[in-house]
Amino acid sequence: MRRLVTPVVVAVLALPFGGAAARPAAGQPAGQLTTGTRTAAGAAAGARVCTVDDERLPEVSGLAAVGDGYVVVNDSSDADDRRRIFFLDRDCAVTRTVRYPSRPRDTEDLIRAPDGTIWVGDIGDNDRERETVALWKLAPGARSPVLHRVSYPDGPHDAEALLLTGDGTPVIVTKDPGIPGLYVPARTLRAGQTTALRKVGQFTLPTSTTSNPFSFFGRQLVTGGAVSPDGGRVVLRTYADALEFEVTGGDVVRSVTEGTPRVVPLPDEPQGETVTYSPDGTALLTLSEKAEGGSATDPALLRYPLPDREPKPAPATSTPAPVASDGAGSGERSANSTLDITGRFVGAVVATLLVMLAFGVFAVRRARRGPGRGR
Known about the structure:
Blueprint: H1 5-14, E1 34-35, E2 47-51, E3 60-66, E4 69-74, E5 84-88, E6 94-99, E7 109-112, E8 118-122, E9 133-138, E10 146-151, E11 159-164, E12 170-174, E13 181-185, E14 194-202, H2 215-218, E15 224-227, E16 233-237, E17 241-246, H3 252-258, E18 262-265, E19 276-277, E20 283-287, E21 300-305, H4 328-369
Parallel strand pairs: 10-14
Antiparallel strand pairs: 1-18, 2-21, 3-4, 4-5, 5-6, 7-8, 8-9, 9-10, 11-12, 12-13, 13-14, 15-16, 16-17, 17-18, 19-20, 20-21
C-alpha cells in the first residue's frame, strides 16, 4: 500500500489524545523490548537474513515462514505476474508460485495455519469503497486458493492485518487510525457466498516514539499480523513497532482487546507491512515493500530476536575419569597421587621463589630512586 494520504487525514481527526507518554521504565535503558505504552526511539535495526531481488516482488505485504523458506504476497498490482502466492527458499529466491482463479483486488496480508493452510487477506480498501472484501484459502496440496467473500456490518474499512484464532477462525484487524477494530465471520465461510462479518472488539494503539518514514502517523496504523507457532502469542505491527500479546486458550480476540502488548521497535523500515514469527518462535521476521530505486534498494528480510525465547546453549558436561576397579589399578592410583602431591609441592615452592624475587627487584629499584623520586 503506497497511498497513505487518506489514513493520515483520518488519523488527524480520529487519534485518541491524552495517552500515556512513551518514556523508559525505571532502570531499563532505551532500545530494549518493552511492555505497555513505551517504545525506544534509539532501538537497533533488525539483522539481515536475505534479500528479495525478484522483480515480481516489489510490494510484499504478507509474509509467513514455512519450514526452511517463506511464503509471500504482493500488495495490489496491475501486473499479472505479480498477482500470485510466492514460495521462497531460505535465500529469498522464488521456487514456485500459485495463481488465483480470479483477479484479487488488494491482497494485504498472509497467515499460515498449523495444518499448513494458507489464508490470504484480500482486505485492502484505501478509498473505503468496497462492498465486499475477500479471504483466499489455499489448502495443503491444493493447486489454487478458494475465494470467500465477506462484508462488514458497519460500512467499508481498510485493513492490512490478518490473524487466526485457536480454532482456525480468521480475524481481520482494520487500519482505522489509533483504534483498530477486530472482525470475524458471523458464520462458517462458504465458497461462492458472501458471509457477513461481525465486530468483536477494538483496542487502542500504545503511544510510541519509534522512528519511521511516516513519523507520528506511522505509529497509529496496523499493517500486518501473525500468530506464533505454538499459538501462545500474536503480534500486530505498525510502520514503527511490533505489538506482541500473550494468548490464553486460543482466544486471540480477548488477548488483543484486553491484553497489554509488549512493544518491539522496528525502526526505520522503508515501508513495513509484514511480520511473522520464525519457525521456532524465537524471533520476529519482517519484510518491507521495495523502495524506489535500483537493486541496492531491494527489500531485505530482517530478523528481530526475542531475548526471552532465544535458544539457550546446552549446559557443559564433563567426562569423569575412568576408575579402576581393583589390582594394578590401585597401585596406579597410588602412584598418581604421589606424583600429584609432589607436583603441588614443587609448584608452591616455585611460586614462593618468584614472589620473593619480584619483591627483591622492586626493593632494589626503589632504593636506587631515593626518596621523592619516581612519583
